[in-house]
Every structure is written in structure tokens, then in C-alpha cells.
Amino acid sequence: MIRSIYRQYPSNQNTGTTSDVTFSNVDVTNNLNTRVFNSSETVETKDNIILLNKGQTGSEISTDESGVEIDRGSSAKFRMVFNKIKQFFIVGFAGTEQRVATCEDAPSNTSITYYDTATKSFVTDSTIRRGGVGILIAGTQFRGPRYTTGSATSDLIIGQFSTGKNILFGRNVTATFEEQMRLADNGDFSTAKVMQTVEGGIAIKLLNNTGATLLRGYIVDVDTSGNGMVKLNPIDTPDAIGVVYQDIPDGSSGWIVISGMAYVIYANNAVSGQFARTCITGDAGAAAGKGFAEALPAPPSTNTHFYENGHILETKVAGQLVLTALHFN
Fold first, then answer.
1. Cα(291)–Cα(307) distance, rounded to whole angstroms?
2. Contact by Cβ (8 Å): 125, 137
């Protein structure tokens, strides 16, 4: 080839096969074999796009990969190539390359990014975004790790928003949500059988089988007609066990506050600091389930002691809900 050029363009340079020859411009009309070695330290081109694998026929490259390799001497080559089998670019040292993931055209700067296997790219989800103090999640639920119990695989649901802005905590087993804890919109925090109320009480869940609705604030006693049942505390009956936290329809289970603080209905006017007990015969306005307020006995009689339901924390008239520090004997 060099000699052919010399015949067309005579030169005063030695054009032997081992000579170093300089030309201003060289046009090559035929192939330079299948491989060309260029010893230049810098290669510059005015082309905007470098085309590899030109002339390929069919729908795919004939070799497994096409791209760029960097020779690092005795160290492993660094490669950036398109992999035909994986259908994406891989980059890295030879033998340890990793895929190159792209990003959507207009990602959100406040959303959480995740890898989408369908598009083989990183995308952002507007329903999962970072806020000023944490991660905000829109929708119905967000989930924790998946775990296996026996032969069943379950998702641990660490929160699920429900009607009334309650947040439920539990697990999802075979597509059925099992509630295990609840943080209600009003601040109540509960499990299946115990609750910490917003007023500062501890409540347990028991069954109303009285034939009527048990109303909030009424004092209850054990109903011995069945297991786990309560009834209104009768007049002249000591050893009440708790106060109805929310109305409980007949035949339903509901929350009974057994310690801490709760709102109680009293048969008479209540004054902050007074002693609180259940009703006995002779009390003005005495009725089953109502409390009675009186000056603190000094000391209380044995009967008074066992009728006690706590100490009054605010002043209100008869028939109103009164905040009470519960103390059942």
C-alpha cells in the first residue's frame, strides 16, 4: 500500500516497510486488513459519532459484546461494552463488570429512587418522597421485611392508613391483614387486647353481654354468666374492675379502663381532690354504674375502701364525665 502511494505521489522519504513516513493527507480506498494498530498517543476526530460494528447484518451483533477496552498493562483491562445477552452496557475491570443503569429524563428531586426492571433504569416514585424530617408515603400502606412462618410467606406491614387516619400495625398473611397494633387519630395506642388511652389510662378488651349498650364513663363489674364479660356495677357492690372507655353495643367487645386515668360519670357534683367510689344505698342520685364523690374519709372504713374507684381530678356537676385517677380495691 505504501509503495502504491509512492508511485502516485513521489516522495523524498524512505518508504520501506519499516520506515516512518509523514503524509499531509492520505486517502485509502481499500481495506487495511482486519486490524489496524495506531501508535499515536492522541487520536482526534471531527466525527460526532463513532460507529462500532459497522456492516453488521441481522438484528443483533454477531459477537457477545461490542465497546471499548483500556489496556492497563499487567493489570486487568477496563471495559465499557454493550452485552448482547444482558441487553445493556456493562462497565468495570475485565471479569468484574457491572451493568450501567440509566435514569428517567425528569426525575423528582424530592422522591425516592428505585430500580425498574421493566425499563432497566432508575425512576422516582411521587408517592414515596423525602420530607423535612423523614420519609413520607402516600397511599394505603408501607411494608417491612418479608419473612416465612412455617410454609407461609408473609409481609410485615409496619403501617397501614385506615378510615379516620388511624395507623395500623400488623402483618399480611395470604393477602389477609392481621391487625396487631393501632395508633388512632386521637392518640390511643392499642394492640388486640390492651390499649394505652390518650387520657393516660390502660384499657383491656372485654365483652358486653348485658342486653343493652354500655355507655362511656360508667363503672363495670365482672359478669359471671360467661368468660371475659362485664356488666354495670350494681349499687352496694364492691370490687368494681373498670370504666367503659367508649360506648360498647350489646354483644360486642370494647375497651374497659382498669388503671391510670379515665373519665367517669358521677351521681353527684364532683370536686377536684375528692374521694371517688361506687354508689351505695342512700347516696343522692345513686344508680348502677355511676360513681359517687365525697370528701376523703380519714381513715376510710373497710366498706368504703372496697367501694373505692379513685380520686377526682377536676370539678364538674352531676352527670358529666369527670377525669379521675383510677384506684380499684
1. 10
2. no
Residue 146's closest CA among 160, 134, 158? 158
Strand, coil or helix: what is 210? Answer: coil
DSSP 6-52: HHHS--SS---TT-----S-----S---S------S------SS---
- The CA radius of gyration of the chain, in Å to the nearest whole number, is 41
Give yes or no: residues 195 and 299 share one domain. yes
Is residue 28 within 8 A of residue 36, CB to CB? The reply is: no
Please identify which residue in the block is written with the cell numbers 410467606: 153
Confidence of residue 2 (pLDDT cuts 50, 70, 90): very low
Q: What is the CB neighbour count within 10 angstroms for residue 203?
A: 26
> Three cell numbers at 91?
462497565
In a domain, 74, yes or no: yes
Give tens-digit pLDDT for 87-141.
Answer: 888 999 999 999 888 888 888 777 778 888 888 888 887 766 665 555 555 555 5
**Same-domain pairing of 198 and 322:** yes
Last residue of a domain, one of 99, 120, 147: 99
